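seq:
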Amino acid sequence: MNGRPGIIGAVLSAACFLSVFCSVSYGEVSAEEVKKIENAMPTKAVAQPAKARKMLVFNLCNGFKHSSIPYWDKVLEIMARKTGAFSIVVSSDMSVFEAAKLKEFDAVCFNNTTKLEFAEPLRKSLMDFVKGGKGIVGIHAATDNFYDWKEAAMMMGGQFSGHPWGGGGTWAIKVDEPDHPLTASFKGKGFKLKDEIYRTKAPFYSRARQLVLMSLDMSDEATGGVKGLTPDDADTGISWIKTYEKGRVFYCSLGHDHAVTWTPAILEHYLAGIQFALGDLDVDTKPRPVISSGKGTKMDELMEQVKTYDWGQSREALTKISDMAREAHGSPAELARIEAAMVAVLESDAKRAGKQFICRQLSIIGTEKSVPALGKMLTDDETADMARYALERIPGSAVDDALRAALSKTSGKTRVGIINSLGQRRDERAVGSLGSLVSSSDAMVADAAAAALGRIANSQATAALAKAKDSATGRVRMTVLDAYLKCADRLLSEGRKTQAIAIYNELTKKEMPESIRTAAGAGKLSAMRPGR
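struct:
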């Protein structure tokens, strides 16, 4: 917790610490933004450097170029100057990884680099650098690299495979290691942040090989409820550290949004991580084991707390259960035990709030083993929507069977929701029931059934809509016609041009609504274009 050591001050007063081998321009950071970064920056090093430290900041992009790159270059420039913890050299020239040039650095920072390709002898020089006792720092897109070099991706601890949590959203982040020196700036509390979060996946990302400091809080409704989640997303790391033979690696996913670069707690987190990578901050790097689950364990106690949980109460137990599911990533047996415990909560007299939380968890880790319990909830107006949320994301025909079975046992908005789920899953076996419901006296049900047929869009659904288009009226008729148009579009995309044109011709007749005629005309022109 000391200030700038004398040797560093002398070095900085004698010469400019920043040199550029070959910089890349992505736009300038405004004077106002520089001031924000200056004001947010820590003024002291976390630990006193053992000697003058020098870090290579590399910012080459062969793929997507983040607009935040110059911001992080500026952050590191200001951090070096204000704290005296290190000096930097910024480069985008791959030759800097030649062994003779690389040896002058104590760490390499990959600043949002993308699609980097290393060939020999640069591969060897970088690996010798790390394994020999030097450091690696990764900012945000640093995991979007090494696609043809598995060893480097394993060393980094993760590899980009998408970002369901886009830059326009605000996401909940949980501090996994609240007592660790690298997370001290967060004071043991999770937080929400507007940023883009990268998905992490096995085998590169593994809690067995790295100490995860922060991760997404999937118990949060917005964070755990984004579209396109997979079971792997139950554990999405945000920052981590690891040793790699004699070397040290620090990575943090935060850094897409410009405002992150003037967020004090995050800058302090980066400073601590950088000093760890440089070799001046000796901290625990031991990976944490998966928390065990089963009868009589801590998980069992937490599940009992979920049963009595209500909205507005502390979410501590929910967060811990979400942690367990995340930490069981890669262990099918562990996930199966957790799923069974969650199903038991659904089958108990747990409050609605607790059941809703469990349904969100099952939407990520659930299998067909959860379907019977979720299926029973479909006929209860109070629990149907939360059950459907989970079921829509669970693969397997058992889900479709449960949804179809609930159709005849429900009515009104609950039935409409089930119809929507059948359409979303494109259940072809539901077409017969949906075709009958298009003529329902309940306009909401009829409208939903027609829209679902349009999403399924197989030959049976097309026939059902062709029959309904002449008898439907009002709003339902418009939905039927729009769905019928979608069937034509589907036929065309599958190369069945003749059948598609036949439907387009029907829908361009003068008695059709103008919007339908226009869309059908455009579809017909597309179908008749040479080469289709």
